[in-house]
Amino acid sequence: MTQRKRLSATQSSSQSARQPGSLVAQEEDDDPTFTQPSTSQVQRGLEKLTSAQVDQKTAEVVQYFLVKDQKKIPIRRADLVKHVVKDYRNIYPEIMKRAVRTFDQVFGLKVVEIDTKNHTYILVNKLEAVEGASSINSPTNPKMGLLFVILSVIFMKGGVVREGLIWNTLKKLRVDPGEKHEEFGDVKRVVTDEFVRQRYLEYVRIPHTEPAEHEFRWGQRADMEVSKAKILEFMGQLHEQDPQNWSQQYREAHSSQASTSSQR
Predict the structure, then answer these.
(1) DSSP notation for the chain
(2) Where is this region: Disordered (predicted)?
(3) Is the pTM of this model over 0.70?
């Protein structure tokens, strides 16, 4: 591919990532050289390896997940195979099965595939999921508190909001996206880059707007980790109202809560 074509492809990818409904992961296609091995291929691969070798590679995969999860970065199968699994790719399903079991039994964590097209995974705390409360639903970390406010605005406004509304809301809380904040640093970068890469938010361009405008939606990780019922409870306390006064949001919160509970 020529340099000009590469540049064109990069620009095209960057532009498509901001189209409504697109996900950041679509900028990074899955590894085309990797094909999920069959059961018989896995079995043949295991016959050539010792139990200690498989255990060691499983431990490396677990470590990779844990390091990425510290920054809430979703893990892509392509990266996992390329950087960790490497020559053991013919037994990838067995390694993942053992890693999932380790997370479940040792760490109390659940591996969730949030993007089946690009095979992207996150770790969810099983105990928090059962109790219905996580660090985001009851934020003590300031950055998670900032995220909780943004997710609350999006949920209460019907699931999609223009970025101007988010910035105005934050300004009322004395968090100005145009100024460096002593706690968050570059607020706009945290919201539009960090939270987006972590899959808490989607930040997509609104078509046919000039100058360009963007809107926010909940990301896939937020759908997995954040309780809409907790948000309504928070809003009720804030405004001294019964959460049921927001009838549409109340129905959505409790229907999604029932749906999530049935999946666990």
Answers:
(1) --HHHHHHHHHHHHHHTTSTT--GGGGS---TT--PPPHHHHHHHHHTS-HHHHHHHHHHHHHHHHHHHHTTPPEEHHHHIIIIIGGGGGGHHHHHHHHHHHIIIII-EEEEEEETTTTEEEEEEHHHHHHT--TTTS--SHHHHHHHHHHHHHHHTTS-EEHHHHHHHHHHTT--TTSEETTTEEHHHIIIIIHHHTTSEEEEEPTT-SS--EEEEE-HHHHHH--HHHHHHHHHHHHT--GGGSHHHHHHHHHHHHHHHHH-
(2) 1-42, 242-264
(3) no
39-129 classified as CATH 1.10.10.1200: yes
CA separation for the pair 166, 152 (Å, rounded): 10
Q: Which two tokens stand for residue 246?
A: 């927001």
**Could you please report the per-residue DSSP string of 160-173?**
-EEHHHHHHHHHHT
Q: Which of 54, 119, 124 is nearest to 82 (CA)?
A: 119
In DSSP terms, 185 is beta-bridged to: 181
Asked whether the domain spanning 142-226 has the same topology as the one spanning 39-129, the reply is yes
Domain boundaries of the chain, sorted by first residue: 39-129, 142-226
Tokens of 164: 């101007």
CA-nearest of 42, 82, 37 to 61 is 82
19-76 tens-digit pLDDT: 333 333 333 445 666 788 889 998 998 999 998 899 999 989 998 998 888 888 899 9
217 neighbors 160 (Cβ within 8 angstroms):
yes
Give the residue from 27, 18, 23 showing the smallest Cα distance to 214: 18
